[in-house]
Recover the amino acids of this structure.
């Protein structure tokens, strides 16, 4: 494992991880902006969170500090909680309007 | 202690009035007003006893920012405190004939107003002054809003609302100015601010921040447009409070908080202010000529008068200052008398339209006489109070600039024109269906007028005692203003 | 330090009480518990310290804000009893969530580590998502919940990305460590980008323009009590966290972001006030006014260099208390008349002088009229801003204050000058108490501002 | 793919694929435990939750209406710009200090556990509040009203 | 000094009594109080007068108390009694008393009898203050006070709005002059730091004041006099003022108040002597007014209007006298004029009384039969005003003419022509009123009667004075003592020295005799013409609207009122409306309202971006983020 580890940063500079995370993050953002289906938007948000996780882990390894990885746990926890709550809100909405299309939720404005 | 007592008694009585219920409210309020007036008399004695050196009360209030609960009574303050203490009970008394809905609230607001006004005139800490300044606005807003008599309620609400927002808007700039000054001085106390050395540029900007607040309240052209409608729409008691006392706040503030604090700013902008003030004098007078609504006419006339006072203050001369103070005092009496007359007319005929009235003198000689005297006082006939004021004001203005004085002097002509035209159309001529059964004054109303008329002649005939009392404080202010 | 723990425990207790069939006692327990915690919190005064590996920091700042939040929490809890009376079976759930929300808020005022900060925000937010959407059959509530949730989680994503970048640069989540790092070395662009992202998510949380869009919609759609929580507890906690973050760890962020701060502040105040002008719904009006208040608080944030915690605390206090009073009254009116429009307040002056007077005072306080707390709040904020050289933006703020008077007074005007339909009107003692107490506090803080200003 | 596929179910599947890829990276970065947890939590729990919700709502067909073209273009441009800006900004962060000596054990369960339950004990406990809250919320929101069912 | 105060305060006392309890008193008592107070004042004044005459009385100049005083600024309330003021004192109280007595009869029917007396008393009070003030400001009190009384008395019958308009006009026109007076005082105060007559007079020697300033001061003060004494162009109020009861016209608008301007200039003669330009101006204005008013007088048909224009004309003459430096002559004419003009007015009042309010001379005629006393007194006074030897007017007028001749021949010619016209219209008046046949209704004819003694008594006294009054100033050609000149010499000493005055020039007695003859001949010719026209040919002036040509223009008073209306009043009224409707409400207030509306509109616009769509919100967020990052990081 050690060899692998060492080779990772010698082959792939930390910048690349930053970039891939940023790209992944932006894909998530794109998903959020692009779609109307609330579930897919949730998933896009998950994607964003994952990109962050990836970044955290990369930095954790980079700094040789476990707290980054611990933080990932919290992110996961939060993600799970969010999904639970988000989906339950979605369910209540679906019960009322039979749609998960966010663009139909426009009664509150101006 | 006496200062504190005088200041807080109205507040106490405001509470008492509210608690006493609708039936007794007016008596309690009147009592309160009289008690305060008594206190004020003692204040005068104390001041004289003190050889006109200011009476001071200072108590630390807030440490950060450093604000002290500082009160100060000198001749100038006492003048306005006395005016307030005298007029408030009188104004309360004018309402005695009328059944007022929710009287306890009304009278307690009036007392609250007195509290605010006294605070404004007594405070020697800028911040405290500001607080009272705003405090005085709230009661009058409600008085005007809720007890106005005009039938067109929507219009009234708009007008009063405009008044509220407009005057508040101005005062916020004053707050800003105070904050700014505080950052430099580290204190709000008048004496510290007086001795502050600000750069000319700062003074120039600060001048407008202060002046805007005061100019709107006074009001100075072109910040006056709230005034006619507000006066018209307020109940008469409210109008009297507004015109009789409240607009003196602005004038007083010019003397106390503007001139000595930013003397160079004043120097720089005096020409502009002068022109505005003189325009106001002529403009108000000219407009008043054709007004059909009695209260609006009086409003414009009042506007013209205060324009002259403003000009007098900005002359930075002894005469201008003295004239301004006398005229502030005089105007309080006169305008209250005039609006009271308007109120009486409105109550009995149900209209304030000058063209619909006429012939009242035939049926109400006492009223006609009293009204005439007040009218004459307001056109500054010699031996009345306003003559002293206008004479000194115009003289002060003359010392500043001859032509401005001549132009402003036109007010004595125009004033005669609109006032006599008004008096003629309202009081003289043949009676008509509205005025044929006009009741003459009853004793309560007569009492009010008698007090006012005594005041009018006292100041008109023996003003020097009064002036000597004010003189030291004006000297002080003038010295700082000419720094 | 223990405030947070005790509060969490209290939340648990509420849940357990439900199971133990002590439903009737839950409310008193919760209120009493919060009061006790409030007391305990006060005893923490002056004890500076960091606990649990600097996860929780206790200092006067945290104690003061905790106190304020607990006070507001007590009010909310008191109001909740009546607010949820139709859903008695779930009251424990609601109370528990309210208290958990409070936990999140408390975490936000006393965190010492970005992990706690993040968790605090999430606890606060997630609880509020739930509460916002808690009127299940009301589409508007659902919509509010959804909007809040979607945008909130999106903002969380940004926040996290920022945290990650900061971590990448500094190698730590600890505020102290970050602070040391930032002052010892010349941070790279990674640090600034991360801080920028955190900044953006904070702006979102405090509903500053241009990230304010969620606020009015969510405020309007949510049950009024929840709105009250968002407007008071959530916003104040967010500002406290904002201050804590940016006064310690990210103070170096200010120079490059100066224009952003200025623009955001001006924009927030202006948009908040101007949009509030034309609103018919009282809640929505308050939402926009809340945005503008966020702007004023931002004015405090941008003057951070001058240690503006006092000003921010006082403003938060004034704003929180007046909002609380206003919302409590709004709830009463809505419960009796079934409407949240400003028209519903017509004639309140005649029918319920107490309520009308209270609302008037609350409105005047928000508008910043002396001698109420709101005035001093504004005063301190302006004063700090001027002291730190933000003169022109203060002028903008002042002009906006004038605008704000218009809409606050519109309500007052409606109460006193319009005629109303006669309906039965009930006012529960809990509400009277909360409203009365708020008004008292407004006056107290207005007349003796020294009580609060000397604190920090 | 997750973003673009029309059928939500397909999206889910793609996302799971994505998660596996990320887990692979974790392994590469020497965070084995995290990789495992990641798979379990995301692929195992969260995605199942998504799927079950989808199934519950019968959303597995392509019912979604697309946004107007303008909004789509706007979305793409905005996201693209964000990416550009982010990359451009982060690119400036060139001179990161060289990585410190790698300690291979930081990703182990033992080490993580130590850090988590010692240094991060309080947040750990605090996250329980988060879960409680979420749990109550989920129950509160999704439980059907009694009156409705009755 | 105490007596002086009594003189002043007695009328005030009378005023107060009548004003407050007059209503409850019987009319007689009310009248007696009114007249009695004046009588006492008169008696006291006479004592002073005699004292001055004997030389036992010294000039009194006392400050009663500090009126407007603070710091260095001090204006006292002080009184001054010297020969000049005592002259006026005598006229005011003497003529005033007679008119009071007359009023008791004349106003007997009026229900506001006590009001009338209170106003009259108040007027006397202010008039006394005017002439007794020892500084300009005290004089100014009286100055404005008499204006007020004039206002009150012109509008005494206030049910008639025309009368009220006349009253208002009088007040406003006076105020225009007063502004000049006021500014003049400011100049004085500014330059001399005092308004005290004596102080200023002495200070003139020590304080350097530019000539222009003196001219300005004198001109401004003269503006005040123009208003008060009805000179061009501020004269139009005086004819209108005839709306007041006739005693008022006699007292205020003939004998006393309108001469205040002359008093003031005489009082301030020391200033005027330093400003020859102003003197010239005054002389021209005076002459112009004399001629102008005289021409109008010729065409008037209202008995009181004729007298009013005559008054204006005579006042013009007096100002001319002042303007050419003949102060004594001016004062002399004031006194004689007071006698005969008061008598004329009272006589006309008697006529009007008899005819129950008819004032149009075209509807009179032949009244001699019924009202012999009135006729005779009226005739005597007319002779006096026409300048027929040896009546009072002859002496005073001739003195002025002589002075004018010395000074400027044109002025003399103008004045002579004015005198000629005066004689003509006065006798036109006499003949139309008292000779020929009665042209009124039968009803009126039936009631014609001589007035009661309370009315005729003052007439007789005044007529007597009009006859003999001239002897106080016999011209030096008669080698008699010019009593008045000597009497006033202490006051005008400076004037006499400075200009050498007219006395010095009056060497050529033959010229003076010639001038007298010319004046007398002119007067006689004028009377003759009038006789021919109205007695022999029995012409009656044309009815209204039937005049033509110049006559029409003059009959309509040169349309001056109309011109004023069109040039001043109308524009101001239009301006007033414009200022209110357009400038104030639309523009100034418009800006205020507009800023409010603008805010609301802006609010409404800002609202629109809050469109409720989550997608849009998120998009906006992202765009903002991009913007912020781009702005912060890509800038440098």
């Amino acid at each position: 494992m050690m060899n692998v580890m060492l080779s990772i940063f010698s082959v792939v500079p930390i910048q690349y991880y930053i970039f891939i995370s940023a790209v992944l993050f932006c894909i998530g953002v794109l998903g959020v902006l692009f779609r109307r289906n609330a579930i897919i938007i949730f998933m896009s948000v998950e994607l964003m969170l994952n990109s962050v996780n990836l970044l955290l882990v990369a930095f954790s390894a980079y700094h040789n500090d476990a707290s980054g990885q611990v933080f990932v746990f919290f992110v996961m926890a939060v993600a799970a909680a969010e999904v639970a709550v988000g989906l339950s809100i979605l369910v209540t909405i679906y019960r009322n309007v039979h749609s998960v299309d966010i663009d139909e939720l426009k009664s509150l404005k101006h | 202690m006496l200062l504190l007592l005088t200041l807080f008694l109205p507040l106490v009585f405001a509470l008492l009035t509210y608690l006493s219920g609708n039936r007794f409210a007016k008596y309690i309020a009147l009592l309160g007003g009289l008690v305060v007036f008594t206190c004020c008399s003692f204040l005068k004695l104390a001041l004289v006893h003190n050889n006109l050196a200011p009476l001071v009360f200072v108590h630390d209030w807030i440490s950060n920012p450093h604000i002290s609960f500082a009160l100060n009574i000198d001749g100038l303050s006492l003048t306005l405190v006395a005016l307030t203490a005298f007029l408030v009970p009188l104004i309360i008394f004018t309402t005695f004939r009328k059944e007022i809905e929710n009287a306890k609230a009304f009278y307690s607001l009036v007392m609250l107003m007195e509290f605010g006004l006294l605070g404004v005139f007594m405070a020697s800490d800028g911040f405290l002054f500001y607080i009272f300044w705003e405090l005085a606005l709230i009661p009058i807003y409600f008085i005007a809003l809720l007890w106005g008599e005009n039938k067109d309620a929507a219009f009234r609400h708009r007008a009063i609302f405009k008044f509220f927002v407009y005057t508040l808007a101005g005062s916020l700039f004053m707050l800003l100015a105070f904050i700014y000054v505080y950052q430099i001085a580290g204190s709000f106390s008048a004496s510290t601010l007086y001795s502050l050395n600000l750069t000319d540029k700062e003074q120039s900007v600060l001048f407008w921040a202060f002046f805007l607040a005061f100019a709107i309240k006074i009001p100075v052209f072109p910040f006056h447009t709230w005034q006619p409608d507000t006066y018209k729409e307020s109940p008469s008691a409210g109008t009297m409070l507004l015109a009789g006392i409240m607009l003196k706040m602005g004038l007083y503030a010019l003397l106390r908080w503007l001139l000595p604090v930013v003397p160079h700013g004043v120097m720089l902008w005096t020409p502009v202010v002068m022109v505005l003030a003189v325009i106001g004098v002529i403009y108000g007078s000219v407009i008043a000529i054709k007004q059909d609504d009695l209260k609006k006419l009086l409003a414009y006339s009042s506007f013209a008068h205060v324009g002259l006072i403003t000009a007098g203050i900005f002359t930075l001369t002894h005469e201008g200052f003295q004239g301004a103070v006398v005229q502030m005092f005089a105007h309080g009496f006169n305008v209250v008398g005039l609006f009271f007359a308007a109120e009486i007319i409105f109550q009995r005929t149900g209209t304030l339209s000058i063209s619909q009235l006429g012939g009242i003198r035939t049926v109400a000689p006492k009223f006609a006489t009293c009204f005439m005297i007040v009218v004459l006082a307001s056109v500054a006939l010699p031996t009345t109070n306003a003559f002293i004021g206008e004479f000194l004001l115009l003289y002060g203005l003359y010392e500043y600039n001859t032509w401005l004085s001549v132009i402003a002097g036109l007010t004595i002509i125009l004033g005669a024109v609109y006032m006599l035209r008004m008096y003629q159309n309202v009081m003289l001529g043949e009676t008509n269906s509205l005025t044929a059964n006009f009741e003459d004054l009853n004793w309560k109303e007569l009492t009010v007028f008698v007090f006012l008329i005594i005041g009018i002649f006292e100041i008109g005939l023996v003003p020097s005692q009064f002036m000597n009392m004010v003189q030291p404080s004006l000297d002080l202010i003038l010295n700082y203003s000419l720094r | 330090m223990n405030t947070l723990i005790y509060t969490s425990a209290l939340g648990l207790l509420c849940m357990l009480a439900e199971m133990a069939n002590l439903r009737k006692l839950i409310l008193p327990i919760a209120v009493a518990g919060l009061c006790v915690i409030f007391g305990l919190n006060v005893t923490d005064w002056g004890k500076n310290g960091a606990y649990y590996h600097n996860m929780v920091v206790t200092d006067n700042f945290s104690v003061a804000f905790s106190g304020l939040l607990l006070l507001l929490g007590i009010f909310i809890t008191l109001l909740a009893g009546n607010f949820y009376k139709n859903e008695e079976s779930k009251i424990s759930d609601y109370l528990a969530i309210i208290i958990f929300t409070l936990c999140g808020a408390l975490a936000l005022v006393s965190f010492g580590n970005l992990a706690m900060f993040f968790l605090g925000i999430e606890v606060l937010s997630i609880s509020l998502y739930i509460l916002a959407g808690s009127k299940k059959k009301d589409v508007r509530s659902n919509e509010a919940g959804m909007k809040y949730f979607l945008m909130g989680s999106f903002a969380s994503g940004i926040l996290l990305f920022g945290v990650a970048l900061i971590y990448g640069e500094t190698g730590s989540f600890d505020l102290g460590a970050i602070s040391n790092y930032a002052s010892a070395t010349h941070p790279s662009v990674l640090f600034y980008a991360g801080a920028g992202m955190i900044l953006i998510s904070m702006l979102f949380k405090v509903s500053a323009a241009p990230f304010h869009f969620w606020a009015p919609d969510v405020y309007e759609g949510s049950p009024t009590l929840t709105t009250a929580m968002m407007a008071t507890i959530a916003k104040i906690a967010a500002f406290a966290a904002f201050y804590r973050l940016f006064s310690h760890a990210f103070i170096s962020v200010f120079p490059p972001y100066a224009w952003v701060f200025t623009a955001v502040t001006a924009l927030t105040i202006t948009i908040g006030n101007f949009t509030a002008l034309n609103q018919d719904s009282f809640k929505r009006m308050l939402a926009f006014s809340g945005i503008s208040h966020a702007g004023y608080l931002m004015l405090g944030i941008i003057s951070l260099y001058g240690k503006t915690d006092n000003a921010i605390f006082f403003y938060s206090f004034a704003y929180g208390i007046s909002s609380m009073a206003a919302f409590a009254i709004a709830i009463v009116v809505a419960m009796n008349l079934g409407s949240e429009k400003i028209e519903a307040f017509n004639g309140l002056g005649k029918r319920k002088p107490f309520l009308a007077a209270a609302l008037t005072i609350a409105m005047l306080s928000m508008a910043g009229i002396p001698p109420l707390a709101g005035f001093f709040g504004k005063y301190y904020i302006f004063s700090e801003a001027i002291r730190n050289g933000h003169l022109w933006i203060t002028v903008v703020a002042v002009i906006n204050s004038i605008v704000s008077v218009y809409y606050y007074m519109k309500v007052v005007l409606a109460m006193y000058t319009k005629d109303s339909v006669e309906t039965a009107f009930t006012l529960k003692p809990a509400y009277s108490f909360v409203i009365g107490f708020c008004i008292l506090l407004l006056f107290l803080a207005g007349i003796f501002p020294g009580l609060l200003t000397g604190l920090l | 793919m997750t973003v673009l596929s029309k059928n939500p179910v397909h999206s889910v599947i793609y996302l799971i694929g994505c998660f596996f890829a990320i887990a692979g990276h974790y392994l590469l970065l020497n965070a084995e435990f995290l990789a495992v947890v990641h798979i379990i939590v995301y692929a195992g729990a969260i995605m199942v939750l998504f799927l079950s919700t989808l199934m519950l709502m019968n959303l597995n067909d392509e019912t979604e209406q697309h946004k107007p073209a303008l909004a789509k273009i706007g979305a793409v441009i905005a996201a693209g710009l964000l990416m550009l800006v982010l990359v451009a900004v982060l690119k400036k962060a060139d001179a990161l200090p060289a990585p410190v000596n790698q300690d291979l054990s930081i990703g182990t369960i033992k080490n993580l556990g130590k850090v988590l339950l010692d240094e991060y004990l309080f947040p750990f406990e605090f996250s329980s509040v988060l879960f409680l809250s979420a749990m109550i919320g989920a129950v509160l929101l999704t439980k059907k009203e009694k009156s409705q069912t009755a | 000094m105490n007596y002086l105060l009594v003189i002043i305060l007695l009328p005030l006392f009378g005023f107060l009594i009548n004003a407050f309890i007059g209503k409850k008193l019987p009319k007689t008592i009310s009248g007696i109080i009114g007249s009695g107070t004046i009588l006492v004042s008169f008696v006291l004044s006479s004592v002073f007068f005699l004292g001055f005459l004997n030389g036992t009385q010294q000039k009194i100049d006392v400050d009663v108390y500090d009126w407007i005083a603070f710091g260095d600024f001090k204006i006292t309330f002080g009184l001054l009694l010297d020969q000049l003021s005592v002259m006026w004192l005598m006229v005011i109280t003497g003529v005033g008393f007679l008119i009071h007595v007359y009023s008791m009869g004349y106003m007997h029917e009026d229900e506001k009898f006590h009001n009338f007396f209170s106003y009259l008393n108040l007027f006397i009070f202010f008039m006394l203050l005017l002439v007794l003030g020892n500084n300009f400001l005290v004089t100014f009190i009286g100055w404005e006070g008499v204006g007020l009384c004039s206002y009150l008395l012109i509008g005494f019958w206030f049910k008639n709005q025309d009368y009220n308009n006349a009253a208002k006009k009088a007040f406003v026109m006076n105020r225009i002059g007063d502004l000049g007076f006021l500014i003049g005082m400011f100049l004085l105060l500014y330059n001399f730091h005092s308004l005290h007559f004596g102080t200023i007079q002495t200070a003139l020697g020590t304080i350097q004041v530019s000539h222009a300033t003196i001219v300005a001061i004198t001109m401004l003060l003269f503006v005040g006099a123009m208003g008060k004494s009805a000179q061009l162009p501020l004269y139009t109020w005086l004819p209108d003022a005839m709306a007041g009861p006739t005693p008022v016209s006699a007292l205020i608008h003939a004998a006393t108040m309108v001469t205040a301007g002359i008093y003031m200039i005489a009082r301030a003669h020391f200033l005027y002597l330093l400003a020859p330009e102003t003197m010239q101006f005054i002389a021209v204005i005076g002459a112009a007014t004399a001629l102008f008013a005289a021409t109008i007088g010729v065409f008037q048909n209202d008995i009181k209007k004729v007298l009013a224009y005559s008054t204006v004309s005579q006042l013009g003459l007096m100002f001319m006298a002042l303007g050419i430096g003949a102060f004594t002559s001016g004062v002399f004419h004031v006194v004689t004029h007071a006698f005969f003009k008061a008598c004329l007015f009272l006589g006309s009042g008697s006529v009007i009384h008899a005819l129950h309010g008819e004032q149009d001379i075209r509807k009179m005629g032949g009244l001699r039969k019924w009202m012999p006393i009135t006729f005779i007194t009226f005739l005597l006074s007319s002779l006096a005003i026409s300048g027929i030897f040896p009546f009072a007017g002859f002496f005073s007028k001739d003195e002025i003419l002589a002075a004018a001749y010395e000074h400027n021949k044109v002025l003399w010619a103008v004045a002579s022509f004015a005198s000629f016209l005066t004689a003509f219209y006065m006798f036109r008046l006499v003949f139309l009123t008292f000779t020929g046949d009665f042209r009124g209704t039968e009803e009126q004819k039936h009631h014609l009667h001589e007035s009661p003694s309370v009315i005729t008594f003052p007439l007789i006294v005044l007529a007597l004075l009009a006859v003999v009054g001239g002897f106080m100033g016999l011209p030096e050609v008669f080698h008699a003592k010019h009593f008045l000149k000597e009497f006033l010499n202490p006051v005008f000493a400076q004037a006499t020295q400075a200009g050498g005055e007219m006395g010095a020039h009056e060497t050529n007695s033959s010229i003076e005799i010639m001038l007298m003859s010319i004046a007398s001949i002119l007067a006689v010719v004028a009377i003759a013409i009038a006789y021919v026209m109205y007695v022999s040919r029995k012409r009656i002036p044309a009815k209204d609207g039937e005049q033509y040509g110049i006559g029409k223009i003059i009959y309509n008073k040169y349309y001056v009122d109309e011109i004023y209306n069109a040039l001043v009043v109308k524009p101001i009224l239009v301006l007033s409306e414009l200022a209110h409707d357009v400038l104030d409400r639309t523009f100034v207030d418009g800006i205020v309202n507009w800023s409010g509306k603008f805010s609301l509109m802006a609010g409404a616009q800002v609202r629109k971006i809050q469109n409720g769509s989550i997608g849009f919100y998120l998009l906006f967020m992202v765009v903002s983020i991009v913007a912020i990052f781009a702005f912060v990081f890509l800038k440098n």
The mean pLDDT of chain D is 75. DSSP finds six helices and no strands in chain D. The domain at 1-59+107-123 of chain D is CATH 1.20.120.1200 (Four Helix Bundle (Hemerythrin (Met), subunit A)).
